[in-house]
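Session log. Operator J.P. requested a structure for one protein chain; no other inputs attached. Running the standard single-chain path with token output.
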Amino acid sequence: VLASTTTTQAAFLPIILITGVVGQIILAIPLVILVALSASLVECFLTLPAHLKQAMEGMSRPVGRIGTAARAFGARFRRGLDAGFDWFRARLVHPAVAGSYRWRYVTIAASIALFIASVGLLAGGRVGFSFFPVPEPEVVTAGVTFAPGMSEADMLDALARVERAAGAGERTLSPGEPLIVAASVVLGQQSQIIRGENLGRVELELTPGERRSVRTDPFARAWQEAIPGIVGLERLTVQGRRGGPPGADVEVKMSGASVEVMKQASLRLQDHLQRIPGLVGIGDDLPFGKTEIVLGLTARGQALGLSTDWVARQVRGAYQGVISSRFARGDEEVTLRVRVGGRERGLAGLHDLTIRTPSGGEVALSEVATFTERPSFSVLQRRDGQLAVTVSANISPGENSVDAVIATLDRGIVADLRRELGLTATFEGRADTQRRAFRDLNLGAMVALALIYLILAFVFQSWTQPILVMLVIPFGFIGMVLGHWVQGFDLAFLSMVALLGLSGILVNGSIVLIDRMNERMARGEDVETAAVGSAGDRLRALLITTLTTIGGMAPLMAETSLQAQFLIPVAITMSYGLGVATLIVLFLVPAVVGVADDIGRALRGTRDFLLDRRAGQPAE
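Structure written below.
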């Protein structure tokens, strides 16, 4: 009991090593299991004996006719159940286990073939992978980028038309079912990071997913298709607000070049992403802002001794004023700024601005400077002190996979951008979160296996028997892949976390089997009789452990709530993995014990042969 409990705790304990947002999301799982298993030990050794004592005392008390009849019925039912179980064990299980032992190399080969077939289901795309499935979004946002210089009234009118298009999409998909609960319109800011007066968004709150038949992604597509052509609208993205780890499914961060070059690369990459099926919400964090005017000195200006800094200070002073003095008022500092009033603020006023030369003369700015208009950026992002631009996109569920899209980009357009423009491009967002999470999970798996081995070595007082017990762990992967294939779910990161925890549960069956085999061999039985007999002796314990665990997970697998969908892969991994592994334990462990005995006898024979030759005696 101690070994079974502590190995399960050792399997779940390293999950705490997973860091970042993913670690914070799943931290409750190992903590609850560790505490619950510790409490089960208290129940097993301290509380359960008292319960059993009371139950047996109650069975010996006299009861009435109804109680006597109930006890008699219970006894008959128990005898019939035991008889049926004994027949099942003697007629079906025992011959099958004996056959797996006699054909032990075939049994091991068949198990390995099943493992390879499971890997093939995953590698061939029959079972997909989604890093972190998120619940059904209930908020849909349309992000809008307008052409610089567009008036505020025109932009508000365009946002109103975008909002009205949502109603048209609602009537198209569900004429008699309301979908939209509330709507809000924001102009001048698209997110907490991206700001600009030419940016806006329309945000819709939908009814809860359980109360509507239309899913969020089809509604977002219908909304985008219903938006009419709007003059001055440069970019439009419609997507649901997603939970889970931060970042988009696909994020490419580019740096190491000028901002103009990176914007050019961003536009090329966005055009390429538009042609990949299943991608939505394509955009970057380097939006164009207002048009800026760049001043350059003419030959006359240079002849008059003007410099760029000299001109820039006077232009800034003319439009923003000059600080004349500062003084303290209470706890605050007050700044006085002097500015010429009545000056025309537009481009005409800039041309007529008078500049003082270093010699004390005055000249019109248009005579000493050139004016060049070009689009500017509303915000510049920096990563690790470097200018950077990030292109992001999300993937509609079931239409593509993150790994496939990233592999295609890394071999194609991203590689071309690196080579042609000389910039640095890396994959961030959920792809980076996925890499970090799997790195921590791999470390946790190594720690878990080491702890399980040490516990088993202490229990069995052997260095080799723990290996026989732990050989069943990889075959839980068969049940995990098979379960997701049958249930129609993609593998997720939580599936892998559940597989790590399942490894501690899987060894429990091997523990009771090997322990019973050791007891039989201690009584003088040969390896084959002990291995086959122990499978029959512990069949009831294995079935009870498996069926109770599957029964506990069944309600979660049958859950229809959209908010619980990301937890169902955990239940699938536990249930199918344990169910398949139970069969593996019954038939594979005896076969592995037989192979280990064959190897041991072969090594002993080789050793005896060498010792006989060394002594100069003929080998038998």
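Operator note: The longest helix spans residues 568-614.
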